[in-house]
Amino acid sequence: TQLLKQSPQFLSIQEGENLTVYCNSSSVFSSLQWYRQEPGEGPVLLVTVVTGGEVKKLKRLTFQFGDARKDSSLHITAAQPGDTGLYLCAGEGRGDRGSTLGRLYFGRGTQLTVWP
Amino acid sequence: KAGVTQTPRYLIKTRGQQVTLSCSPISGHRSVSWYQQTPGQGLQFLFEYFSETQRNKGNFPGRFSGRQFSNSRSEMNVSTLELGDSALYLCASSAQGGTGSGELFFGEGSRLTVL
Known about the structure:
The structure holds two protein chains of two kinds. Chain A is mainly β. Chain A has no helices and eleven strands. In chain A, the strands form two sheets. In chain A, strands 2, 4, 5, 9, 10 and 11 form a six-stranded mixed beta sheet that branches. A five-stranded antiparallel beta sheet of chain A has the order 1-3-8-7-6, with no helix packed on it. Chain A is globular. The mean pLDDT of chain A is 92. By secondary structure, chain B is an all-beta fold. The radius of gyration of chain B is 13 Å and the shape is globular. The model of chain B has no long low-confidence stretch (mean pLDDT 92). The chains are: A mainly beta, B mainly beta. The A-B interface holds A 2, 30-31, 33, 35, 40-45, 48, 88, 90, 92, 100-109 and B 4, 33, 35, 41-45, 48, 55-56, 90, 92, 98-101, 103-109.
């Protein structure tokens, strides 16, 4: 059972376009992390959001944690080819509703391709 | 500081064989987690070790096992390999001492192909 569902699964856009990736769950998480993985490498942490409603910006990337701490979104402005990669969200379990306290649950990822 | 090191990077085995993968965490990190990554299932949690004790375990059969040594290095073993075990096996280390996961630092993975 996948606690976190990411959409879309694949996204192919032109350089300069904006995009949003979604991460949804029926479970509440203590925190939510976003990672990016490039071919042949392991995932690298981009950001951690902890508070419901929290918004964090990292240059052209904007991350938002839902008010109820069940979902999150990643918005990229003016995408560049260097943004290409697999974007993964991961929620930290609270020990209820089938989640184990402290464990990270990963979504299946969104494969983003930005064409020049 | 040096990152997470996984060995071997690539390996090919046949059905029925066993395999041992190794992970050296970032110096000072005491938590090591293992994940299996496949195109169909994404990242699936195998287990987590902290100070030589298994702290969490995912829903994998008993053929998958692991251990952690006193220097925090970890190994995972898969016995009686099946074709479906072909995957990228990722190790991640964390400095988190409590129940929270903290930031995970991943290695580049060991790509296992079972023929």
